[in-house]
Amino acid sequence: MLDVTSHPVNARWPAQHPDRLQLYSFPTPNGVKIAIMLEETGLPYEPHRVGLSDADVRSPEFLSLNPNNKIPAIIDPDGPDGAPLALFESGAILLYLAEKTGQFGGATAAERHHVTQWLMFQMGGVGPMFGQLGFFHKFAGKDIEDPRPRERYINEARRLLNVIETRLDGRDWIAGDYSIADMALAPWLNALDFYGAKEMVGWADHSRTVAYVERFMARPAVQRGMKIPAEGS
């Protein structure tokens, strides 16, 4: 049976509290999703800061937990039926935590499907497209002379923002009540500021989306989760 202290990842990121859920992450939009959910639910956990360099994410220890070498990942010593569970992919982890705690995943079957729908919207659309926008605007891709890749992701980011702006008409949260869909989506919207891309995608023209992110960022659990895992954890 899986045990936190005997798992290979523990050799590099040792658990001080092996009875708690172990979070292996970094404070990126994908990483903070899980920290925010854990802070919102009050579930006891221990965070470990996994850097984004190959030295961490491609280390044998981390690959033993996530062969896809991406943060975040978790080990829950109290998983389904009381057995430990290791899990990667931020969307899958959010769905698992919603089911485990009975919180933020929708109160009825129909609500759960709507939450999942908007979670998948972020996972399949907003995250990949905004990430590429950041690459071509702020990081190595900015040096590519061909303007077409940059224009493609600027236009797609604008399209996705329009979808969100329309959806938020008359709503405070993307899928009804505050949910894991918001914990997934809002950090990626907030990342446009880090990328320095707000002006180019017409951020100020999306007043409902602007207010949505402000509402999200004002939550105390979000403010805590955005800083986790901290340096040295």
UniProtKB/TrEMBL annotation:
<dbReference type="InterPro" id="IPR040079">
    <property type="entry name" value="Glutathione_S-Trfase"/>
</dbReference>
<dbReference type="InterPro" id="IPR004045">
    <property type="entry name" value="Glutathione_S-Trfase_N"/>
</dbReference>
<dbReference type="Pfam" id="PF00043">
    <property type="entry name" value="GST_C"/>
</dbReference>
<dbReference type="InterPro" id="IPR036249">
    <property type="entry name" value="Thioredoxin-like_sf"/>
</dbReference>
<dbReference type="Pfam" id="PF02798">
    <property type="entry name" value="GST_N"/>
</dbReference>
<feature type="domain" description="GST N-terminal">
    <location>
        <begin position="18"/>
        <end position="105"/>
    </location>
</feature>
<feature type="domain" description="GST C-terminal">
    <location>
        <begin position="108"/>
        <end position="233"/>
    </location>
</feature>
<comment type="similarity">
    <text>Belongs to the GST superfamily.</text>
</comment>
<protein>
    <submittedName>
        <fullName>Glutathione S-transferase</fullName>
    </submittedName>
</protein>
<dbReference type="InterPro" id="IPR010987">
    <property type="entry name" value="Glutathione-S-Trfase_C-like"/>
</dbReference>
<dbReference type="InterPro" id="IPR004046">
    <property type="entry name" value="GST_C"/>
</dbReference>
<dbReference type="InterPro" id="IPR036282">
    <property type="entry name" value="Glutathione-S-Trfase_C_sf"/>
</dbReference>
